[in-house]
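Retry 2 of 3 after timeout on previous attempt. Resubmitting structure tokens to design endpoint.
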């Protein structure tokens, strides 16, 4: 079986997330009831084929995908800082999405849409190849125990899929405060032919921490516990007119 884009689908026995409780605060429940039908959708309920973002956002604009928005602390601020983008966030945790709706309401956001479900299913089945202006994955579950490393999101097959959905020149931006996971992310992305490290000339290949990325309470906690955050930015290699890889982003 092939996906609509012609790629072989993932054959997974484990996923990178756990299902958590769905109990919401009064405010979260109100935001969910008021905004979800217009601003959110279940990945499993999307029509077959690529997501019609122009219709959903009510405009044509570059689409940026954030995978794992958590409680939306950073996501809402990032969407507010980039009104020129159609900002799409995918998350499995219902109270987190409800909290993001609350944050979006307070900031008056009109450029944010939410999806609940598996990011891999979204990318495989509903995101057209070469269509995204960027993908952000900030502080995904590190699964720190060695026996759980297979559950980490950033693996070779996932990175190949994500890279294929990026427009030429667009970035895959990763961040984590777990050293081993950061090294794994770097190795996996460096092995992907469609990607080039934009900061390959810097020590370790790490990107400088961008001032625009908000410091969340979880990142502050990591710093307090002695963990250093690492950013990685990999650009999608353009394809030349003959179908080969351009040298534009080669490190």
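Retry 2 succeeded. Sequence:
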């Amino acid at each position: 079986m092939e996906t609509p884009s012609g790629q072989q689908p993932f054959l997974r026995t484990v996923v990178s997330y756990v299902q958590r409780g769905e109990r919401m605060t009064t405010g979260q429940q109100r935001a969910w009831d008021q905004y979800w039908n217009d601003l959110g959708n279940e990945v499993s309920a999307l029509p077959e084929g690529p997501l019609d973002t122009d219709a959903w956002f009510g405009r044509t604009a570059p689409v940026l995908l954030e995978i794992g928005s958590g409680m939306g602390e950073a996501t809402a601020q990032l969407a507010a800082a980039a009104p020129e983008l159609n900002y799409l966030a995918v998350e499995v945790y219902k109270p987190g999405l409800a909290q993001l709706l609350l944050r979006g309401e307070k900031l008056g956001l009109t450029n944010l849409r939410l999806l609940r479900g598996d990011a891999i299913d979204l990318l495989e089945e509903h995101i057209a190849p070469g269509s995204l202006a960027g993908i952000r994955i900030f502080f995904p579950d590190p699964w720190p125990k060695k026996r759980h490393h297979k559950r980490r999101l950033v693996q070779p097959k996932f990175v190949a899929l994500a890279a294929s959905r990026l427009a030429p020149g667009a970035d895959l931006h990763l961040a984590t405060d777990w050293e081993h996971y950061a090294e794994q992310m770097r190795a996996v992305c460096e092995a992907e032919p469609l990607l080039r490290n934009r900061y390959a000339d810097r020590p370790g290949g790490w990107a400088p921490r961008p001032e625009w990325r908000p410091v969340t309470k979880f990142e502050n906690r990591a710093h307090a516990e002695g963990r250093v955050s690492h950013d990685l930015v990999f650009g999608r290699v353009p394809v030349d007119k003959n179908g080969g890889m351009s040298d534009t982003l080669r490190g």
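Attempt log closed. The chain has one domain: 26-236.
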